[in-house]
Amino acid sequence: MMQFFNAVDRWKEIEPHLADAEFQRILTEDFSRFTWGRYRQRFPDPNRPLPHDWDGFAGAEAGRYLGPTGEYQKYTLDLCCHWLVGANLRLAQLVLPDRPWRIVCSRQNHTVYDGRDTLFDLEGLSLYGSADLAYEFAFGLFGRELPVGQYLTTKYAEHYILDVERKKRGTPFGRCPFCNELATGYCCTSYAAYVPTQTYRRMT
Predict the structure, then answer these.
(1) Number of domains in the chain
(2) For all residues of the chain together, what is the average pLDDT?
(3) What are the E-state strand segments in the chain?
(4) 201 — pLDDT class (breaks 50, 70, 90)
(5) pLDDT mean over 142-148
(6) Mutual orientation of helices 81-95 and 21-39 as an angle, nearest 10°?
(7) Range of the domain at 187
(8) Do 83 and 51 lie in a common domain?
(9) What is the Cβ-side half-sphere exposure of residue 6, based on CA atoms within 13 angstroms?
(10) DSSP 8-state code for residue 18
(11) Average pLDDT in the 106-114 region?
(12) What span, in angstroms and rounded, lies between the C-alpha atoms of 83 and 45?
């Protein structure tokens, strides 16, 4: 049976590490790929300095978060595990440095795993509330386990307009809502208009 690192009761163990320069760098670089890709806005924004201050893929939809409430939720956002898992890995290394933390990811979930029975996963704790479910999703469809300590290279989020157009036209995810070809960024000029033009330096 899997368990989450209890970020509610043990928040005081996490809090001192939020100022860590490496954690801040990873959070900023990775989450910028969400905010720039989806909204063409930089992270952090003066009015939205933390991930939970932004609209996620479900907007402000009520009932998205099934886990316990707590300060840790400021560092979560619905369906944004891809852009937050690196920050979780860094925190895990700082809070419990004696464990071999590694990222496990799939199309359904990205999490940080100690190789035994514990997930350090603020996003999963907040969104699912069940460590077994978060683990199952991470090892699900096309799941893969990265080497211990290795960060994930994050991709840009897709622009929100493309979601709107897909729903309007009934186009399946992964296909361009304008030409119905595979959404590669080169399929048509209409889609290419929403491909990010600004890049962010990726950590080594």
Answers:
(1) 2
(2) 91
(3) 3-4, 102-105, 110-113, 118-119, 144-145
(4) very low
(5) 92
(6) 170
(7) 160-192
(8) yes
(9) 3
(10) G
(11) 94
(12) 16
pTM, 2 dp: 0.91
Predicted pLDDT of residue 204:
32
Nearest to 171 by CA among 154, 188, 156: 188
**Residues 82, 49 contacting (CB under 8 angstroms):** no
Residue 156 confidence (pLDDT): 94
The owner of tokens 């080497």 is 147
Does residue 61 share a domain with residue 14?
yes
Distance of CA 29 to CAs 18, 43, 84, 133, 171, Å? 15, 8, 10, 28, 31
Q: Which pLDDT belongs to residue 52? A: 94
Based on the domain organization, do 164 and 76 belong to the same domain?
no
Residues 78 and 115 both lie in one domain: yes
Residue pointed to by tokens 């090892």: 139
Cβ neighbour number for residue 184 with a 10 Å cutoff: 12
Pairing mode of beta strands 118-119, 3-4: parallel
Tokens of 67: 């886990």
Q: 80 and 132 share a domain?
A: yes
Residue 193 identity: A
b/e 109-128 (16+ beta carbons within 10 angstroms → b): bbbbbbeeebbbbbbbbbbb
**Tokens in use for 125?**
């704790």
Closest CA to 23 of 79, 60, 75: 75
